[in-house]
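Our consortium's second objective concerns turning raw sequence data into structural hypotheses that experimental partners can test. To show how far this objective has progressed, the report includes one record in full. It was chosen at random from the queue rather than selected for favorable results. The single chain below, 392 residues long, was entered without modification.
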Amino acid sequence: MSNELLLKYGCNPNQKPSRIFMKNGGELPIEVLNGRPGYINFMDAFNSWQLVKELKQATGLPAAASFKHVSPAGAALGLPLDETLKKIYFVDDLELSPIASAYARARGADRMSSYGDWAALSDVCDKQTATLLAREVSDGVIAPGYTDEALEILKTKRKGTYNVVKIDPDYKPEPIEHRDIFGITFEQGRNEIGIDDSLFENIVTENKALPESAKRDLMVALITLKYTQSNSVCYAKDGQVIGVGAGQQSRIHCTRLAGNKADIWYLRQHPRVLSLPFKADIRRPDRDNTIDVYLSEDWMDVLTDGIWEQYFSVKPEPITKQEKRKWLDGLGGVSLGSDAFFPFGDNIERAHRTGVKYIAQPGGSIRDDNVIETCNRYKMVMAFNGVRLFHH
């Protein structure tokens, strides 16, 4: 290890010179085992590592995240996958350890956004996880360690250039952080707020039944939001993120974006999607893209143009808007977290359409009464946690 690492360039090729270093003269807490990570790679690596480390600390379970452009496309705990999830995540042919299951879930939440991701693992990367990473389009991975077998597999990826970073799990940053913008230095205390189930004690709705599984999912959502570019909203279910709306200027746009992603996640489990007649040589990313189009309103245009012939052996039957709505009505028990208060009940209306039952948000809007009233109409459970989680 050293106290400085020179990078190829910054966010863009014209931004030179570029490096990461320790201002206090100490050693960097990371070691590059393979490849040459760039500026954005390390921004993804350090944000995603904090996320999975906190998830592990909060739940005691292995955790993984899939990051793109300094926000998570997905994050998850290492819980077993049922046969349907294995199929839609394209891992039904693999043996999955708990940490491999966590990454399969994290990447599977939004496979299109995870294309070319940065992966983070709370636990040592094993052979099963490396095997999964090796066959997906990914830029790199950060973990507290790698087995010999895993490292050997990862070193063969991308013609030997795949980025593999090892981080010291005991590293603790300084309590004050700095950044320069326009030649001006900003200083603030690190966001060290702890997220645990004590944040869900102030339930403000008529329905106050909050099961342990929902508390776990709300922790997954809030810890994910802590490292998501704001404004942001996160939907979670069964220990994994199923939709993130990041970096939107309007809260309702966050809720819609995350909800639409969660809808697609669930629609991918529709029997007609599971049985799509793909040609044998279609790659996984092309399947992801095609499924996304198949579930979109543009599908009838694609059928008319005959583009389907590139991907399918026979013309698939479309899913009507009414059929989609009927299928989505079967989605329930979803948890939702918001990094700041909901200003209007329209967010709750949209969340309801994606099966949201449990909500955690700071509260403090002048329209809190309207938001609570809307939750009560749908018998939702909502906790005011009093914690804002903006991240920029």
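The partners drew two points from this record. The domain at 4-167 is CATH 3.40.140.20 (Cytidine Deaminase; domain 2). The chain has three domains: 4-167, 176-267+328-384, 271-318. Both points have been shared with the crystallography group to help prioritize constructs.
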